[in-house]
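#struct-queue
[09:14] JT: dropping the first one here, sequence first, then the structure tokens:
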Amino acid sequence: MLKKPDFDSGWLSLSPGDKEIVHSLNTTEVVVYMTGKKTLKRAPHQMEYGGFVNTVVVANDYRGVYWHKLTPNSITIHKHGNDENWEYVRVMLWKISDP
């Protein structure tokens, strides 16, 4: 059974662009789990996790969400401007301990 995360952001509203989330774990040795929702009433998903470019329909149609800029005390989430599926995001972190 997986233990409770060392950090859980809860559901956060997500706009296009970068969103910095402060976790204050004082380490970058973590496992990151990120999930999203269209509305708070719908089931969580990971649609287009990492980003997606739909060049078939419209050139430069960027969708999806990814995380980057992990620091000892924060992580940054990026939502592409055309994304329609990630209105809310939840980030959970588990510290990786030495064996």
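[09:21] JT: and here's the second one, same format:
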Amino acid sequence: MNANTAPKPIIAVVGLSNRPDRPSYDVSAYMQHHGYRIVAVNPMYAGMQILGEYCYANLQDAAAALAGNGQKIGIVDCFRKSADIPPVVDEAIAIGATCVWMQQGIVNEAAAAKAQEAGLVVIMDRCIKIDHAMGMTHGVL
């Protein structure tokens, strides 16, 4: 299977807001428009719909629900403060994600090192929407 026919990874967006004026919403809507499945993860909105997708309280709940359908989260896209990244990385490792993507302005070197040691691709301080639009896949999109 070549890159053009490989299925697109499912993207869990940690910190996805239900407000259209928020960057997490805009970025997620863009990725959906380009054929990616978005999984909303935000305890404030758990049980609600965001961008037509059920919102989960955490990555474990999201991963368990997808596993029931034979699906798996590939990319964990983080819209959280840098200080809040370590537990997200722990969850990403626990669910077997392949990539942790920290959006622009989000850097946590210790969490990144832990994720890399666990075999995950780590992208920090970059916007998934901008990189996708520029054709920069980092081997994960």
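[09:30] RK: nice, looked through the second one.
[09:31] RK: The chain has a mean pLDDT of 95.
[09:31] JT: good to know. The longest helix spans residues 23-33.
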